[in-house]
């Protein structure tokens, strides 16, 4: 039983993910937004790598039954309904809708896992639900999306938060990156206790200094950081159906 964390999709060959359970983590913000949209009643999220493919797919649906969402460089895409902030995906906007969704990093990472037997979406908000789903899996690969081909500490921390309870109670053999990510997360927990903060509060503080967090601060999306740092507030695990391309 192996539990591997990969800091970027390009650090692991697609073939090496074949047959395993992959958990895609793009904490800021695709993973959190997908979880939020489904929790608020979206029928499904259909991910795309390219903007043009997303817009073209809209022709397959009645326009009132879909929402076009996503970002490039953190900013909303011209002509789309929503950006990539989880705060935008409220029940009054997404309930009963299919979300056609493309982001700079997260949806591309999902595509990298196309040979996996199962592809799940993990974040802080559904951390415990993901842990429970993974307890009976044998080969787990947690795939961090990164930011523009650069390793991001926010994804490493989220991956470590998922891996830590699994490794503490299971028989998985971690790779060195999993061990390092768990140490990073344990250091955050220790700091939170020393400062009298909750783990979510400390996570939100530390996100301000991560690559993705600095990017969001730079475009005025400060309010997304504490939302993405919330732990265990959603009891669902989005899973990609490879036959129809929908995350449900």
Automatic annotation (TrEMBL):
InterPro entries linked to this entry: ComB-like, ComB-like_sf
Transmembrane segments: none
Catalytic activity: (2R)-O-phospho-3-sulfolactate + H2O = (2R)-3-sulfolactate + phosphate
Enzyme Commission designation: 3.1.3.71
Record-level Gene Ontology MF annotations: 2-phosphosulfolactate phosphatase activity; magnesium ion binding; sulfopyruvate decarboxylase activity
Gene3D superfamilies for the chain: ComB-like (3.90.1560.10)
Keyword Hydrolase assigned: yes
Keyword Magnesium included in the entry's annotation: yes
Record keywords, A-Z: Hydrolase, Magnesium
Cofactor entry: Mg(2+)
SUPFAM superfamilies to which the protein is assigned, alphabetical: ComB-like
The family this protein is said to belong to: Belongs to the ComB family.
Protein name: Probable 2-phosphosulfolactate phosphatase
Protein's organism: Adhaeretor mobilis
Primary gene name: comB
